[in-house]
Design a protein that fits this description.
The structure is a homodimer of 322-residue chains. Chain A is an alpha+beta fold. The first copy, chain A, has 2 domains: 135 residues, 2-Layer Sandwich (60s Ribosomal Protein L30, Chain: A); 159 residues, Phosphoribosyl-aminoimidazole Synthetase, Chain A, domain 2 (Alpha-Beta Complex). Chain A is built from 10 helices and 13 strands. Chain A has a 7-stranded mixed β-sheet. The two termini of chain A are 31 Å apart. Chains A and B meet through strand 2, strand 3, helix 2, strand 4 and strand 5 of A and strand 2, strand 3, helix 2, strand 4 and strand 5 of B. Strand 3 of chain A pairs antiparallel with strand 2 of chain B, so a sheet runs across the interface.
């Protein structure tokens, strides 16, 4: 590691924009913040070289951005706005200062975009690079948006297109460039939560059950159904499959591909007019199925149930995201 | 990694005692807690195999305990009581389920002792093992106890003995067993903050400037003086050197050895009677010097300044603890 303590602390200090609520930022045993009374969401999510990515196809700048983005995604999915984060970075000796600079720049750009303040953390030596971010957000909904709150009769919806990130990763791993794949590459390298749409969903009180899609639609929906003790009946024809996946015959990635960080949520039928209005206003929302009594996820194609052989996507050798 | 997702989540769930303030614990995108208005302390600190320890001399049980203890130490040093933590564990494929069980047991024992609640985290594959804990505490002092608050004329004190952990590590690394070294081994393997004494210091409002000693007395005191823009004048004869270090001629470890997790604090002269009373009540506090104008740390032996060649201790290839 070429970076000395003083450099690092200086870098981290200048990194931060801060706020009146931060009484003590980087530089002490811990950070001190004033919090108003209320409900807060806490998350922690890591990215590890050779497990989640390789530097050969993901520049440190995007590693930094993505480490923030995946935690933001979890915070939003609970109905909260991100406020603060801490970060531990495990740095192998071979990693250069410019690489670390770009990593920081990525974290800075991603956190500043949402006014999230860096409070501190740790930098340690490591054989393989890792970055582990913890984040605190404040609930802006009356009650948290939980995986355990899907109700019988609710409709199931997702934002955006699914499988883009998985196809992007596929291309990066193969080292293939392909016209028309830019959106998929971007979705893997630089995923962003559909923040504007999220605000609309919150504002119009559309949903009480939300999660982000990090490991793939089917596997994540199964988790939601398990927590809610319900079954999901999905209509295959309504899944938002990107055109490029259809063209390539890789539609299945829309069901099984991870890391899109789109939002999955349920809503009562009476909210359908508001959802349709949001769609008309240009927001990409797909109503893909319905919650019923039972358990697990069932997929229907033109009204007929089909069986899925591969359920989802997990990072190699890794537990799924919380 | 032999542990499957479901096992892990189950393990983590049963791990937790919880409280009415935890509206949603493990099992969702994030945890949701009710917090009362006030000041909170946030810390994050990691331990990495081959950097901070080897499993050959530190059992997973103690790795788990210590990962909690080092974060508790930072929280207490700010004047706060720990409430919640999240943890990311990087698990190499070679690690066995019983090892992971013991790691969890260590975390559980350490966190339950202080009623700290596990809220979640992440488990990821990794080449080398790492554990990264983030922790939230609530300030119980009117203002945080900062490294930046040492005042000219204040006395400087430390709790316990210094250099014990470094000597314990030395023995473990060499594979030596030695009579009378039990306390030093324990201090390295199972460090505990002087919690009872800490409560007394808080209760009697002794100090406004505190930090924990994680990297060694001199290097940590230099950090405090840098933040406070003062100099420290240390009296070598008052440093609490363990008898075993004197016997071995390794007194210097008391100045430079890390990982004792004792507390370093300053206090105004007018508080000296209370400090003396705590000493009479059996608390190990050593008044080791005085804060003056200037910068850095000066060490005096029988009134004469001596020069230190080695200033402190840093983990190999690593940034110091925040």
């Amino acid at each position: 590691m070429e970076i000395s303590e003083n450099n690092l602390i200086k870098k981290l200090k200048k990194f931060g924009k801060t706020s009146d609520n931060v009484l003590r930022g980087i530089g002490d045993d811990g950070a001190v913040v004033t919090m108003s009374g209320g409900q807060y969401v806490l998350v922690q999510d890591a990215m590890v070289e050779h497990v989640h990515f390789e530097f050969s196809f993901l520049d440190p700048y995007y590693v930094g951005k993505k480490a923030i983005a995946v935690n933001v995604s979890d915070i939003l999915a609970m109905g909260a706005l991100p406020l603060y984060f801490l970060v531990t970075i495990g740095v192998p000796a071979r990693m250069s200062s410019p690489d670390i600079e770009r990593l920081y720049k990525g974290m800075k750009d991603a956190s500043r975009a949402l006014n999230i303040i860096l409070l501190g953390g740790d930098t340690v030596g490591a054989d393989s690079f890792f970055i582990d971010v913890s984040m605190v957000g404040k609930l802006v909904t009356k009650k948290y948006l939980g995986r355990d709150k899907a109700q019988e009769g609710d409709l199931i919806a997702v934002t955006g297109y699914l499988g883009e990130a998985a196809y992007g990763l596929h291309l990066l791993q193969k080292g293939i460039t392909e016209t028309g794949s830019g959106k998929c590459l971007k979705r893997f390298m630089d995923p962003r939560s559909p923040y504007t749409l999220w605000k609309e969903l919150i504002k119009h009180d559309i949903t009480v059950a939300m999660m982000d899609i990090s490991d793939g639609l089917i596997i994540d929906l199964e988790r939601m159904m398990a927590e809610s003790k319900k079954t999901a009946r999905l209509d295959l024809e309504n899944i938002p499959v990107p055109a490029i996946l259809r063209k390539k015959g890789m539609e299945k990635l829309a069901l099984t591909g991870g890391e899109d960080y789109q939002l999955l949520f349920t809503f009562p039928q009476k909210k359908l007019p508001q959802v349709k209005r949001l769609q008309r206003e240009g927001h990409k929302i797909s109503v893909i199925g319905k919650v019923a009594k039972g358990k697990g996820v069932k997929v229907f194609k033109n009204g007929k149930e089909i069986l899925l052989t591969e359920k989802g996507y997990q990072h190699f050798n890794e537990e799924p995201h919380e």
